[in-house]
Automatic annotation (TrEMBL):
The gene is pheA. It comes from Lysinimonas soli. This is Prephenate dehydratase. PANTHER family: PREPHENATE DEHYDRATASE P PROTEIN, PREPHENATE DEHYDRATASE-RELATED. Coiled coil: none annotated. Residues 208-286 form the ACT domain.
């Protein structure tokens, strides 16, 4: 599949959780540089990132956070364990769902519902209220959940799918707007292997993954102080098990600002001194384009002046009163 033509000259490939019509596909449509290039449909996050690592694709769009369910653990764990990846952009997609079935099926006929696990989690209150005895059949994507209803011997009676799915597949809509939160939004990121950091725009975000040095009282507070004392706001803080033993966790962190902002750079230096492992995932423009504001004591000039003052002391310059 392609943004325009798969045979376009000098085309490059972008991977996404397909098939056509998924929310990830909708996010990829927001990537300007992907227009007119080849779009490769994959089945899961691991396959998408493997495409990037092996060079099959120049980039992959993957879901990383939902406003209802929080961080997408599969994405967070993959980014923590696959080296050489950078986030270069983020994109927001409003999330809505419909319940579909084969033509002729009624709501009373539904017993088994196919749905991607994240989509199911965002609709379970509606489903529990109207179909209290239903069973959930996990699907690889929201579109494939609907597509499998048209197989010769489908296991599911209905599927949770994105609006407009009936235009792509011969299914009937049993119910609309079944999401539990009408304001739900999913955040997607573009992941590449390029180490080139996008220029700062003043409305930026930086993502890192950090491990605590020890499991002792105050360790988490000490990590957070690296940001608080430099006026750096955190927009996401989630823990994920490292997996080597019980009680060992890494923290997935999104912070407001760009690595070229003095306050952010200083915070990352403090973090590196504190933590045995800091994984820098990238600095990139915020999807909402909201400018990051800080008080004057955290402006770049304040950090620069402080360094100049210290440099002067070391070099023997007289300290001004």
């Amino acid at each position: 599949m392609s943004g325009s033509s798969a045979s376009a000259p000098h085309a490059v490939t972008y991977s996404y959780l397909g098939p056509v019509g998924t929310f990830t596909w909708a996010a990829l449509r927001q990537v300007p540089e992907a227009a007119g290039q080849v779009w490769r449909s994959v089945n899961n996050v691991g396959e998408a990132l493997d495409d990037v690592v092996t060079g099959r694709s120049i980039g992959a769009v993957i879901a990383i956070e939902n406003s209802v369910e929080g961080g997408v653990s599969a994405t967070q764990d993959a980014l923590a364990n696959i080296p050489g990846l950078r986030i270069t952009g983020e994109y927001l997609v409003p999330v809505d769902f419909v319940l579909v079935a084969r033509p002729g099926t009624t709501l009373a006929d539904v017993r088994v519902i196919a749905a991607h696990p994240v989509a199911y989690a965002q609709c379970h209150l509606w489903l529990d209220a109207r179909l209290p005895e239903h069973e959930h059949l996990p699907a690889t994507s929201n579109v494939s959940a609907a597509a499998q209803l048209l197989a010769d011997n489908p296991i599911a009676d209905a599927a949770v799918a994105p609006p407009g799915i009936e235009k792509e597949h011969a299914v009937a809509v049993l119910a609309e707007h079944i999401g539990d939160n009408p304001n739900a939004v999913t955040r997607f990121v573009l992941v590449t292997s390029s180490t080139t950091i996008p220029p700062r725009t003043g409305a930026d975000k930086t993502s890192v993954i950090v491990e605590l040095p020890t499991d002792q009282p105050g360790a988490l507070v000490e990590m957070l102080e690296q940001f608080a004392t430099r006026g750096v706001n955190l927009s996401l803080l989630e823990s994920r098990p490292i997996g080597d033993e019980l009680g060992r966790y890494r923290f997935v962190i999104d912070l407001d600002g760009h690595v070229l902002d003095e306050r952010v750079a200083d915070a990352l230096l403090g973090l590196k001194r504190f933590s045995p492992k800091v994984l820098f995932l990238g600095s990139y423009p915020r999807a909402d384009k909201v400018a990051v504001t800080v008080t004057s004591r955290y402006d770049d000039e304040v950090f620069i002046d402080a360094r100049d003052w210290l440099r002067g002391l070391i070099s023997g310059e007289p300290d001004e009163p």
